[in-house]
């Protein structure tokens, strides 16, 4: 009986693992840029500045990994926002403050190119159900869309 159980367990463990869902939230956009990772990051930063958004912070997983002697593919979250949008957001909904800053996630693919993943602001803020927040988020959709278009062209 134990041998049968162990055989079943080994067979189950040998089954292929299902891939994760790279798009678990509505409004998620995934763009294969075709551009080298480092070059795309520079273009993205320039596009953010040209789009009159501020870079609030950056989280660099590969930088942290390098600090402990581990090499992983490029992995950066660029967080963007602007004070006037923060004021409008908080006026419409203090609870929505957790959604700021907006995040642009850049990952290095096996071929060295960059993938950009982000969520449309209209989808980020939609669950709050506040008309003023929805209007602001639609404006941000246009701004973020223009930034992405500029960086990926």
Q: Could you please describe the fold and organization of this structure?
A:
- The chain has 153 residues and is an alpha+beta fold.
- It has a five-stranded antiparallel β-sheet with strand order 1-5-4-3-2.
- A hairpin with a 4-residue loop joins β4 (102-108) and β5 (113-119).
- α2 (37-50) packs across α6 (131-152) and α4 packs antiparallel against α6 (131-152).
- The chain is globular, with a radius of gyration of 20 Å.
- The chain is 46% helix and 24% strand.
- It has helices at residues 2-14, 37-50, 61-67, 83-92, 121-125, 131-152; strands at 28-36, 54-60, 75-81, 102-108, 113-119.
- It contains six helices and five strands, in the order αβαβαβαββαα.
- It has one domain: TT1751-like domain (TATA-Binding Protein, 2-Layer Sandwich), CATH 3.30.310.70.
Series of H and E elements: HEHEHEHEEHH
Give the overall form. Answer: globular
Strand content: 15-25%
Global mean pLDDT: 90
- CATH topology title: TATA-Binding Protein
The CATH architecture name reads 2-Layer Sandwich
Helix content: 40-55%
Poorly predicted residue ranges = 3-15
CATH class: Alpha Beta
Trace the largest sheet across and list its strands.
1-5-4-3-2
Largest sheet: number of strands, sense, barrel closure: 5 strands, antiparallel
**N-to-C span:** 62 Å
**Structural class of the helix and strand makeup?**
alpha+beta
CATH superfamily: TT1751-like domain
Total beta-strand segments: 5
Total helices: the number is 6
Number of domains: 1
Work out the radius of gyration.
20 Å
């Amino acid at each position: 009986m134990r041998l049968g159980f162990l055989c079943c367990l080994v067979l189950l463990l040998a089954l292929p693992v299902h891939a994760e869902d790279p798009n678990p939230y509505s409004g998620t956009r995934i763009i294969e840029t075709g551009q080298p990772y480092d070059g795309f990051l520079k273009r993205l930063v320039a596009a953010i500045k040209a789009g009159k958004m501020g870079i609030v912070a950056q989280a660099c997983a590969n930088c942290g990994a390098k600090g402990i002697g581990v090499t992983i593919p490029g992995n950066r979250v660029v967080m963007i926002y602007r004070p006037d949008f923060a004021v409008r957001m908080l006026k419409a909904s203090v609870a929505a403050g957790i959604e700021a800053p907006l995040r642009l996630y850049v990952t290095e693919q096996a071929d060295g190119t960059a993938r950009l993943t982000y969520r449309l602001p209209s989808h980020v803020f939609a669950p709050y159900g506040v008309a003023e927040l929805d209007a602001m988020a639609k404006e941000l959709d246009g701004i973020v869309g223009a930034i992405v278009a500029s960086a990926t062209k």
